[in-house]
């Protein structure tokens, strides 16, 4: 007889939980998990392969546990005077977040998040035995300094998660809200900047607030702007003492030598890799414009995706798009769907299909 989860001596606090579940389907137009759908440029791919070829000759040895060249390359990329000893990296920012919770969370401790937000924030929180507390947002999914202060005072969390800009809504987060959260809280404040590169170019990163704020952590990823989701590289900027704390919980050699080599090679081509970002932002703005014309209600977004309301039956529209070879994300937010901005051709395919569905064609 088949064994189910309930038959296993699994931790009580994991009973009844659901795993991360974005559908992985092979369809011609996949706009459901906020990937960068542009393939990486061929000359960059060639340089990465050459670096991998060199690294593979040493793969009999454990990798550099401190991934020093990668940390130096990430510090240079981030700028703002951030030094390599302030940088940490792991297999995706998901792993960075997990390590933060292993070091600063755990049983008897709590995280305050602000739903609707990135689903892995609560899943990783619970997975590390940390309590997940829900803060309230203002109208329009905003979080004002007063709101963040009030929610921190109400819940007294050990860790505050702020997603800037927020997934799945795309909502910007102003620096004064981050400053207010830091002042009001006694613990760690993590700003998840997974979509930082899609913000308006003149808007500052939370990295500019790091000086003098040792409890402030800023995580980012190469999965989005760098089109590197399959390579699994996320990173963090914080006080060097925070990096020391993460060394206590990381598994030795957690970043393979192949991952390190590939990431360092990609960062050598940061300018070329980021040239795709402008294209994606243009397609995102086009989605907002055309969805508005179709009568939908797209929310303001600083990311590579658009959350839009005014969808009478999100599940039916999701299925109708899927039947046309296009996958978007149904996040169970009533009346809403989320779509990632793709290439111009993918975005056109999505908009044309949605128009047909809207008009009953
Ligand atoms: N943070 C946010 C807000 C995200 O949306 C994602 C990916 N969807 C991640 C972190 C994780 O990205 P990765 O593990 O690929 O770095």
From TrEMBL:
Cofactor(s) this protein requires: pyridoxal 5'-phosphate
Catalytic activity, reaction form: L-histidinol phosphate + 2-oxoglutarate = 3-(imidazol-4-yl)-2-oxopropyl phosphate + L-glutamate
Annotated gene: hisC
Protein name: Histidinol-phosphate aminotransferase
EC number: 2.6.1.9
The organism's place on the tree of life at top rank: Bacteria
InterPro entries: Aminotrans_II_pyridoxalP_BS (IPR001917), Aminotransferase_I/II_large (IPR004839), HisP_aminotrans (IPR005861), PyrdxlP-dep_Trfase (IPR015424), PyrdxlP-dep_Trfase_major (IPR015421), PyrdxlP-dep_Trfase_small (IPR015422)
First-tier enzyme category under EC: transferase
């Amino acid at each position: 007889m088949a064994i189910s989860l309930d038959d296993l001596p699994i931790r009580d606090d994991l009973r009844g939980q659901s795993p991360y579940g974005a559908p992985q389907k092979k369809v011609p137009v996949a706009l459901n998990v906020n990937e960068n759908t542009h393939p990486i440029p061929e000359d960059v791919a060639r340089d990465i392969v050459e670096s991998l070829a060199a690294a593979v000759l040493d793969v009999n040895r454990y990798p550099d546990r401190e991934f020093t060249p990668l940390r130096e390359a990430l510090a240079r990329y981030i700028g703002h005077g951030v030094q390599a000893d302030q940088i940490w990296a792991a297999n995706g920012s998901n792993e960075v977040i997990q390590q933060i919770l292993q070091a600063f969370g755990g049983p008897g401790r709590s995280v305050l998040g602000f739903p609707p937000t990135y689903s892995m924030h609560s899943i990783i929180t619970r997975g590390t035995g940390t309590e997940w507390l829900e803060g309230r947002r203002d109208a329009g999914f905003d979080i004002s300094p007063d709101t963040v202060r009030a929610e921190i005072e109400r819940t007294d969390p050990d860790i505050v998660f702020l997603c800037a800009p927020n997934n799945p809504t795309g909502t910007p987060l102003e620096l004064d809200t981050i400053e207010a959260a830091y002042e009001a809280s006694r613990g760690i404040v993590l700003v998840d900047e997974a979509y930082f590169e899609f913000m308006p170019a003149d808007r500052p990163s939370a990295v500019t607030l790091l000086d003098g704020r040792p409890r402030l952590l800023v995580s980012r990823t190469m999965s989005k702007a760098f089109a590197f989701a399959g390579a699994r590289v996320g990173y963090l900027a914080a006080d060097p003492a925070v990096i020391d704390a993460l060394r206590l919980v990381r598994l030795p050699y957690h970043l393979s030598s192949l991952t390190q080599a590939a990431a360092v090679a990609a960062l050598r081509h940061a300018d070329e890799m980021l040239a795709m970002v402008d294209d994606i932002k243009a397609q995102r703005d086009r989605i907002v414009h055309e969805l508005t014309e179709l009568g939908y209600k797209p929310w303001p977004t600083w990311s590579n995706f658009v959350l839009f309301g005014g969808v009478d039956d999100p599940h039916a529209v999701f299925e109708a798009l899927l039947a046309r070879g296009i996958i978007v994300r149904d996040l169970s937010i009533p009346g809403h769907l989320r779509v990632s901005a793709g290439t111009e051709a993918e975005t056109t395919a999505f908009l044309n299909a949605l128009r047909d569905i809207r008009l009953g064609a």
